[in-house]
Structures are given as C-alpha cells and as structure tokens.
Amino acid sequence: MEDAVLLKDIVKAFPGTVANNHITISVRKNSIHGIVGENGAGKTTLMKQLYGMYRPDEGEIWINGKQVVFHSPRDAINCRIGMVHQHFTLVNSMSVVENIILGRPVLKYGFVDIRRAKKEIGLLCGKYNFDMDLDAKVEDLPVGLKQRVEILKALYLGADVLIMDEPTAVLTPQEITELFVTLKNLRDQGASIILITHKLSEVMQLTDEVTVLRDGRVTGHVFTKDTNEQELARMMIGRGLLLHIDRQEAKIGGKALGVRNIRCKNDDGMMVVNDVSFDVHYGEIVGIAGVQGNGQTELIEVISGINQEYAGRIEIDGQEVLTKSSPWQRRAMGLGHIPEDRQREGSAPDATIEDNFLMTTYRKPEINRHALISRKKALQELEDMVREFKIKIPGYRAKGSALSGGNMQKLIFAREYNLNPRCLIASQPTRGVDIGAMEFIHSHLARMRDQGKAVLLVSNELSEIMLLSDRVLVMYEGKISGEVKAGELSEEKIGLLMAGIVQERGEQDVE
Ligand SMILES: Nc1ncnc2c1ncn2[C@@H]1O[C@H](COP(=O)(O)OP(=O)(O)O)[C@@H](O)[C@H]1O
Ligand SMILES: [Mg+2]
Q1: Is 44 in the pocket of ligand 1 (CB under 6 A)?
Q2: CATH topology of domain 255-509
Q3: In testing the pocket of ligand 1, which one of 7, 12, 14, 38 has its CB within 8 Å of the most ligand atoms?
C-alpha cells in the first residue's frame, strides 16, 4: 500500500537558516507518526509545506502515491490534508458551527444552510464520540474544546491526514488524556495523524512510529515499540537525559514569603482564590500543583502584584507588602517572577530582543547605579545569557515577536535568573521549551535553592513538580486542598488531591 504522505528530500531555507535540510519522511496510512525535535529543529516549517503554506525550495511531496504541488492550503485541503496549528485560528465571537463551516459553507438558495451543516457536524461528532455544544460561542469554551473545534473543522473539510502541531502544550492533563483518546479513535477509523511534539512521554504513549529532527535534518526514524525515551533523547539532543537533579540536602532558612488568607474574585465576581495561606522559606522549593483553572494563576497574580484587588496579607522577607504595591515595588523587596503568560505579561513583542531583556535588567543596582544606565554592561549580560542558555535569536535588534515561543521563554527565564532575586516565583517555567532547555531551567532552579534562595514553583506538569519540589501544595477550587511534605511525595497522593477526591488541609497547618 502506498504511503498516505511522502515528503521526499525537502529543502527549505530562510535568510540565515536552513530550516529543512534534505528531509525525507513517509507517513503510513492508519498510523500516528510522531515528529519530534527541539525548538527550532524545523518541525513547523516542514508541516507548513505539507499544508501548502510554504513552497519547498527543493524536494517533492507525494500524497497517496501521487506527486502534488501545493500553492495554498486550499490545495492541501483538496488533497484531504488538515492542520491544527499551534495557535488556534478560530473566530472567538462566533459559534462552534459557524467556525466549522467557515471553510466550506453549505449553500441552499444562496444562503449558508446552518441546519444542514449542523446535522452533518452532528454526525461527525457521533462518529468520533465528541460531546460538543454546537451553538456555544467559541470564546466561552475551555482550551481543550477549542482545540476539538479545530479538529472538527479539519474533519468537516474532509481531512484524512491530520497534522497536529504541539497540540498538548496548552492543555490540562485531563484534556491531554481526552485528546489522545480522540486521536487514537481517528486513527482506528482510518486517518493518518502527524503529531508534532517535544514531549517524549507523549510520543511513547501515542505514536506508532517516530521521526526525529535536529537542526533541520532527520537524525532518526524508529518504530515506537522498538525504542525508549533515552534513545529518542539522544537522537534529539545528542545526549541522554539527566534522570535526576543533583541537589544538596535542604537547608531550610527563615521565611522568604508569607501568604495569609488571600481571597480574590475574577471578573465575573466568582471567588477564585478562597482563603489561601502558606509560607515559603529560604533554601526550599515549594511546588504548587493543580489542574489548570483552580486558582493558581489568580493566586500568583495577587502575590506578584499584577492584581492588586485582593483581601489578605503578603510578606516578603519579613516585610509586609502594601496591597497596592506594584509588581516593581515587590521586585524591589526581593521578589522575582517568571510570569505564566509570556505574551501578555512577560514580554513586549514589538520591542527589540535587547529591550525585552533590558526592561528588568535596567533596574538592577549594579547597572542602574545613581540612575546612570550602563547599556553596555547590560548588553554584555544579555550576550552571556544568550550563550549560556543557547537562546536562538535572529539578532539583538530583531523584534521579540521574531522569537519562537520556546526561545522567548528561555529569554524571560534568563532575564529573571540574571536579576538574582532572593525569592523567585516560577509560573509554568518550562511551558513550550524543549528538553535541553527544560533540564537547563530545572538545574538552575535547583541551584538557586542550593544557594539558599526561595522558589515558589507553579506548574501543571506533575513530573516537574515531583522532580524539583521539597514540599508540594495542591490547589483545588481556589483552596489549598492539601500539603505533601518532603519524604511523603507521591504522584498518586498529589493526583488524588488535584482531582478533589481527597481534601486534607486544615488552617491549623499554618502558624
Ligand atoms: N518565517 C520564518 N522566517 C525566518 N526564519 C524562520 C521562519 N520560520 C522559521 N524560521 C527558522 O527556521 C528554523 C526552524 O523553525 P521551526 O520550523 O519553527 O522549528 P520548530 O517548529 O521545530 O520549533 C528556526 O531556526 C526558525 O528560527
Ligand atoms: Mg514549531
């Protein structure tokens, strides 16, 4: 049987980079084919050619045994290729049905026949076991369901090859489980799925075979059943994984951060953080685990000063923080913050990479002594960080928006690390970064703790929480549902607390 897709000797260059350097990949019918590689390996570029968004400089694309040339995504769609992008392309103010039929309106007397479209989409939902309110507005849907709308849209357009570009980066663990069920279901009903990811555990769980890219080239192709994470990591980054982080015994110091009875509401007036109290000491990493949407984001917005509408008390290094203190005032008290939303709070996409780094570095005393800014010294630090963190940048004067998400995350981490705060809040610090950078960030967080600094780590990745934390607090429905102390850490225990099945924390736990 011919392959569903054959990419043959594809070359695609951008000024200064060969993103795809003679890549050949064949995707079998009825299979899930993983394409893995670090940030910048060339995965998205390759897929954009298969989806008709770029033309290859060299090489051939074959679909079902026939050579094709795509001039636009329309051509790819006509060959039954569908793509779900890293960033969704839905119109938020429209309903699910309206979004799905945008690509292919059903006409009846010249009007869009919503009823018929709904019926067809309903049948698709039935076939693939999707539980979906077709009249809901897209903006009201959680991320997992928005993604499902994107998948439905591709299926409605007739896709039998579905490209998923890093689909799990934005999902909760439960949504990931549901997505995997969906993808397996699609495969079992005849589709071919190309799954792009840099998470090796996902590859092992879901795929039938894997192609590994590194620096624009194929460094390996294996059947999933014949490989393991270590081997894939070696092909991906040229070395094996660090399975644990060397760290010293905890030397717990004084109180770095005190949080007492914090309450805050969201825009709809719902109490999303409801009486949260805890301490973080110097020399420890305290993890906050929880399923996304249980108040973690709002809690960190309060502690960091992004949201100043809250009740309760916060102390930094023994000093009380005034409710109305700005994020900058809190930084001056010793609090560093790697924000979870790097597009909105962490970075300025229109500013240059230099300025994105300098926006906090300028406030560092050595650089900003007597208000005299030494741009040269700051830029030297930036260069050191770019080298040390292996941040891929097109140039220091390029706009922040030119960086891939993973590289922007590295830049923000480098910037905050470089400020050397005594207490650091790290929110989803490795979201979207590849395993090389992830290990780098992890070892730097552990190093900060070994140096006697305090770290509050908030992450949806339970494995990250388990790897780094000395102590774990679990948030559920706006409260701390439990605390798991060092020596008692188990994934199962945390999982039960995360799901709200066990709740065990009373206020007496905090002095
Ligand atoms: N539109 C573009 N213009 C210039 N360079 C690009 C463009 N798109 C991607 N690149 C570069 O090509 C390389 C591969 O990028 P990409 O395909 O996005 O990688 P991946 O998806 O594996 O993270 C990177 O070095 C990236 O900076
Ligand atoms: Mg990509």
Answers
A1: yes
A2: Rossmann fold (3.40.50)
A3: 14
Ligand 2 geometric centre to CA of 137 (Å): 28
Q: Fold match between 5-237 and 255-509? A: yes
The full set of domain ranges for the chain reads 5-237, 255-509
H helix and E strand count, the chain: 16, 22
* Ligand nearest to the Cα of 39, by number: 1
Q: Kindly report whether the global pTM for this prediction surpasses the value 0.85.
A: no
Superfamily of domain 5-237: P-loop containing nucleotide triphosphate hydrolases (3.40.50.300)
Q: Whose CA is nearest to atom 26 of ligand 1?
A: 40
Other CB atoms within a 10 A radius of the CB of residue 2 amount to 13
Digit-coded pLDDT (tens) for 40-71: 889 999 999 999 999 999 999 999 999 999 99
Helix, coil or strand: residue 154: helix
- List Cβ<8 Å contacts ≥24 apart for 29-32: 29/1, 29/3, 29/4, 29/190, 29/192, 30/187, 30/190, 30/191, 30/192, 31/187, 31/192, 31/193, 31/208, 31/209, 32/183, 32/184, 32/187, 32/192, 32/193, 32/195, 32/206, 32/207, 32/208
